[in-house]
Amino acid sequence: MAAKVELLQNQLMLANDRCNALHKKATSAAGNDAEHYADSLRRRCEELEKQLSDATAAKVFKKSEKSDKASTPPTSDEVTS
Fold first, then answer.
1. Nearest in space to 81 (alpha carbons), one of 67, 48, 44, 47
2. CA angle 67-69-75, nearest 5°?
3. Which helix (H) or strand (E) holds 35?
4. For the chain, which residues make up each domain, given as ranges?
5. Is 0.85 surpassed by the pTM of this model?
6. Who contacts 60 (Cβ-Cβ below 8 Å, separation ≥6)?
7. Measured between alpha carbons, how far is 56 from 62 in angstroms, rounded to an integer?
8. Tell me: the pLDDT tens digits for 28-78?
């Protein structure tokens, strides 16, 4: 068990190093324009949120289609999940 924990910690450390390297590369490419970098991160976050929202909506829509075929209205759980 301790060996597995150590292995996972090493993998996490390597992943963090890669993340830091990418962050440094992105900040150096943007130069001193921190606002430009922040805007690019904001746009990426918005894009990911949109994709997540679309996936969730598609999932709910599929559930409601199944309910419509069974001639029963969707339950509150189906609508909210």
1. 67
2. 15
3. helix 34-69
4. 1-31, 34-81
5. no
6. 78, 79, 81
7. 10
8. 765 667 777 778 888 999 999 999 999 998 888 887 777 666 666 667 777
